[in-house]
Amino acid sequence: MAIKAEMSPKEIKETKPYIEWGLTEKEFDFISEQLLGRLPNYTETGLFSVMWSEHCSYKKSKPVLREFPNRSKRVLQGPGEGAGIVDIGDGQAVVFKAESHNHPSAVEPYEGAATGVGGIIRDIFSMGARPIAMLDSLHFGEVDNAHTRYLINEVVAGIGGYGNCMGIPTVGGETTFDECYTGNPLVNAMCVGIMDQNDMQKGRAKGVGNAVMYVGAKTGRDGIHGATFASADFADDKETQRSAVQVGDPFMEKLLMEACLELTGQHKDWLVGIQDMGAAGIVSSSCEMASKAGSGMELILDYVPQREPEMSAYEIMLSESQERMLLCIRAGFEEEVRSLFKDYGLEAVVIGRVTEGNDYVLKHKGEIVTNIPVSSLTEDVLEEPSEETNPERISVSEKLNNWVPDILDARETLGKMLAQPTVASKKIFTQTYDSQVRTSTVVGPGSDAAVLRIRGTKKGLAMTSDGNGRFVYLNPLIGGQIAVLEAAANLIASGALPLAMTDCLNYGDPNDPEIYWELHKSVLGMSEVCRVLNTPVISGNVSLYNENNGEAIYPTPMVGMVGLIKNINGYLTNTFRKSGAKVFLVGETFADFAGSEIQKMMTGKISGNLRSINVNSESEKFFKLLKAIELGIVDSAHDLSEGGLAVGLAESLFSSGLGLKANLTTMSSAFLFSETPGRFVVSVVPENVENFIELMKDDCTEIGEVTTNRKLQIKCQDTEFDFSVEEAQKVWEEAIPCLMKSKD
Amino acid sequence: MKIAVVVFPGSNCDVDLFEALHTVCQADVEYVSHKEKSLESFDAVMLPGGFSYGDYLRCGAIARFSNIMPAIVEFAKQGKPVFGTCNGFQILTEAGLLPGALKQNNSLKFVCKTVDLTVENTKTPFTSQYGEKEQISLPIAHADGSYYADQETLAKLEENHQIVFRYAGENPNGSLNDIAGITNEAGNVLGMMPHPERAVEALLGNEDGLRVFKSLLESGKNTIEEAAF
Hints:
The structure holds 2 protein chains of 2 kinds. By secondary structure, chain A is an alpha+beta fold. Chain A has 26 helices and 28 strands. In chain A, the strands form 5 sheets. In chain A, strands 8-10-7-11-9-12-13 form a 7-stranded mixed beta sheet. In chain A, strands 23-25-22-26-24-27-28 form a 7-stranded mixed beta sheet. The radius of gyration of chain A is 26 Å and the shape is globular. Chain B has a single domain, classed as 3-Layer(aba) Sandwich (Rossmann fold). Chain B has a 9-stranded mixed beta sheet with strand order 2-1-3-4-11-10-9-6-7, sandwiched between helices. A two-stranded antiparallel sheet of chain B has the order 5-8. Chain B has 5 helices and 11 strands. Chain B is globular, with a radius of gyration of 16 Å. Classes of the chains: A alpha+beta, B alpha/beta. The interface between A and B is medium-sized, with 31 and 32 residues. Chain A: Residues 80-195, 446-565 form the PurM-like N-terminal domain.
């Protein structure tokens, strides 16, 4: 892309290149007639097209996002900044956010995933927090073709390549497989940081005359129109989109992080505001910082460090080169800041000043190339009301009877279930992530939630990322409820009080009324559970247009949740620890097979409707169990999800050196695979059984005892079987390595 | 004993080494920047894991040209204890303080897990608290940990008992002679791929690495006592 004569405003109006960049004709006319009173020039049209994209403006999803509760006594910073912040006592706070990088990862999986990790880490340290952990949520197509294997290998390598080099442990996450994600994998990354509340920073540029400073990597032509690209769906005739993907340099980001943390931690008097240059690069960070402070801004683009010669104003402003931050520095401290960054081998350059009023002025090569109101890029974006309709599949399924599996051989079914990629061990992937660096990982990948200790305190943090598109597809409202309940259950099982959540809302094309309906209903379902559990949504991200050749993915909201463990020594894992311990099932089991793993395994698809959930009684049960765990009367806890009770019992035995004798004579073998949400398998040593039952009352049923024989023995209404734990674990561990190896 | 933890651009296990020494062992420890030129006032030097200079070019290849390196070489020549884990080990081989080189893992992938090791030599300042042939477990986390040296060098390493840690059971990276850690001929410079600093607290599930640091601190006491006589 060499510099070329740019179109004149008149030519732009006539030939409409902005449509290709994502702006509609209606929006273009509104901008020209109502906001500017003139036609925008080439650079300005580019700025509008990225800032008005869904990725930056949330113009379609905003009305729905307002449903989310975002306050609690603990929330110090809700949505609207780089990341949300929650009080964890002792003057400390936890900071977290999740972000999707689905579209870049579909096109260039290694760099797409790596820069997704890099971007979310910058969001955390831009708040003044030290990133302490990464999690991910990955959804791929079925592992039965070479392209999916390539995507998996590259995405996993990209996540590890960036996080490992940064020295931030990747401690947890999830990976699932379904045909709907084949051409449009979901790559969501979540970062958790910790900070002193005194160090909190905001992305704002205020104080006339204060300097706008650019720090980090030079600006190149990579990633131009990345934000717009993320707001359009894929089709085979657009294979050329590779140029929109950025390339990451984790070493540069490590230096940038250390320098920024020195600035935010030790030189607060120099700093007014700090923001990551993420999607839509310099334009979004600078105009958002000005907008949040009610300031104007003038930038001289010639001062922007550039990697390539002859870049145009349009290219400089829209570049999504990685590892860059924008600072607002109190006038008079520019030299100090420059010298601090130089110490880390980084460039810090004054590229402009905060001005009075509301004008966003850009100068390049002696000319004013942009002069528009700041608010026209941020606040004046036309919200687009969207139409909603209930998809036909849902009204049809409501009238049908739900499918119930006919189990001929329960043992064989369990064996096959353990080998389903969504259920099977993900060690082959998680082992390539450094999960221990910073030496605070108490529980790494593989348990219900990851657990980290907080140095210098008795506290710990539990964290999880979870999403189940199948349930949301079958019933967005109930599926949304289950998504939040499941994440909370992960934390409860680890002994943590859920504090707050972040999300990545991965959906199809919102212009389709059925998809907008899915988005709306699922957000309502999630919001309801958030209110009941008091886990407000403090940050998040929306990824729409996840489609491939017209087929949408399952609506897949990913929930990232963080919980507080009062006393780190009281944390739990899902593994049975003592023979003789009594095993309880917490929560009732119903005929919940719609959207279950067994339905997919036996019928090849999912169908049916979901049973409604009493959110209040679920919440009461959760908090009773948490109380039991905090009292120290529970020995292990595992929340049940994909694969149901049978899989949960097997997982509780893996690597334990123990066995289990389970007596489930009130249950037919099919129910071993039901996926009723909100259930846990817990073990309790005999001396605590009485107290446990007294606390849990009807919410728990004793189902067996931990033994020393290394066998999973299950007796149910219609059958009886046993499975050697060693054999079961082998099936579970070898399934994915075997699928990843086959050649076709 | 005063210990230096050297920080290169891109080091990321520096905090872990520091905490193991400072918080767990209550040792006197300080960070030393790669820009410094002197190690005067220190009694031992530790090079942390991580990705110095992004591991660009080759792991450790750029770090070995940093300002602090001549002082580290001099320090080692004087017979004082020098320790490198993971990237620190790679830097020590690049700097020629230890023989051989670390190649990419056989799997061609980064691997993070706990492996079994045998302690092969307990007569070093870093291993005196272990038993001869003791089996321990330590975490590894690397992409380039496959130790390589020519046959002659390997024979010398074996003969001089310079192989201090060997993988027991599964070799996670394809290193020759199952080598996980070696010393120089004089025995005062140790490089190892496993991370003992990640295994010093029961809360994190493993304390097998603690004695590397206890051994060093103990050796310091002996040296000081000797000096006093």
